[in-house]
Amino acid sequence: MSARAGHPQTPMLELRGVRAAYGRIEVVHGVDLEVPAGSVTAILGPNGAGKSTMLKVVCGLLPATDGDVIVAGRRVNGATPDQLARAGLCLIPEGKGIFPNLTVRENLRMATYTGRSLASIEERTYQRFPRLGERRNQLAGTMSGGEQQMLAMARALATDPALLLLDELSMGLAPIIVEELYAAVAEVAREGVAILVVEQFAQTVLGVADRAAIMVHGEVVASGPPGELARDLAAAYLGGDGGTRSPDGAAIR
Ligand SMILES: Nc1ncnc2c1ncn2[C@@H]1O[C@H](COP(=O)(O)OP(=O)(O)O)[C@@H](O)[C@H]1O
Ligand SMILES: [Mg+2]
User: Fold this and answer.
1) SS3 of 19, please?
2) Which of 63, 135, 161, 230 has the most CB atoms within 10 Å of its CB?
3) Contact 167, 55 (CB under 8 A)
4) Edge to edge, what strands does the sheet with 66-71 contain?
5) What percent of the chain stands above pLDDT 90?
6) Residue 115 placed within a domain
7) pLDDT in tens, 201-237
8) Does the Cβ of 49 fall within 6 Å of ligand 1?
9) pTM listed for this prediction
10) Is residue 118, in this structure, part of any structural domain at all?
């Protein structure tokens, strides 16, 4: 199974009527979505909307209870996370998924299982993120949150993903770092990777997204070009269960 072999017009990822549940409680109620190669798709929505659950379904960590998960034109419902990873899917989970007690270089070494040499992974990583080069021997857990997120992204990219899934990339990071990270995300998309980002906080991702959708209470309530979603977004957060508000109107946990 290779996600890279699809027809250029076939979306890298397509969801059709996807539902998901924890036990008997359904939290994703029929989501339709397309993520083309070489582009960034953003899904925004308040805490509890079902965004992370949807990503778990795409990665094979949670079975869809209904609907189709289609990767590069092939229905992949029932595939294991391992099979999907080999097909080119890569998730950067909320909380980054790096090893805090290993150095930057040791974290990168974990990605050599794909067959690429550590030297070539390091070269590409430090070119994209010079800051990681300066910190190659530092324990990952002692770096700033932004640098840790860069490392998580570098590890993901070392596996040459066809579809990169990012869960709350900006969580807890300073706006200037978030901008830097999203600039890197946009660059990766330009190299041909399909990228799906879910975020609770909107602003920065909309600057690099080609398409955006809003998810509330397990449903996509609006989708379209990022510029056209601003008003829907305000409504989604004000009407949703996003908790309290920051001065710029974004929901705070
Ligand atoms: N492991 C789990 N077991 C049971 N319920 C869960 C679990 N994870 C999430 N949920 C519930 O599913 C809903 C959607 O959660 P989630 O997908 O994490 O939303 P989001 O990522 O948009 O914040 C929430 O009501 C949450 O409480
Ligand atoms: Mg989440």
Assistant:
1) strand
2) 161
3) yes
4) 25-35, 13-22, 66-71, 74-75
5) 75
6) yes
7) 767 898 899 999 999 999 999 999 998 887 777 777 7
8) yes
9) 0.89
10) yes
Ligand 2 centroid – CA 46 distance (Å):
9
Query: 117: burial class by Cβ within 10 Å (0-12, 13-18, 19+)?
Result: exposed
| Ligand minimally distant from the alpha carbon of residue 49 | 1
Residues 56-109 pLDDT 10s: 999 999 999 999 999 999 999 999 999 999 999 999 998 878 999 999 999 999
Spatial contact of 108 and 121, defined as CB atoms under 8 Å apart: yes
Domain membership of residue 102 (yes or no) is: yes
**Based on the structure, what is the number of domains in the chain?**
1
Ligand 1 contact, 22 CB (< 6 A): yes
Measured from the CB, is residue 240 less than 6 Å from ligand 1?
no
- Ligand 1 center to residue 112 CA distance, Å? 32
Phi, psi dihedral angles at 248 (to 5 degrees): -85, 5
Q: Which residues surround ligand 2, an ion (CB under 5 A)?
A: 51-52
Domain ranges, residue 110: 98-160
Question: Is 17 domain-assigned?
Answer: no
